[in-house]
Amino acid sequence: MTTWLRWVLWVVCVATVGWLWLAGALGAGGALAAAAASFLLFAWPNPAQRRRRSALRYIEMGKLPIGLH
Question: What predicted TM-score, i.e. pTM, was given to this entire model?
Answer without folding.
Answer: 0.57
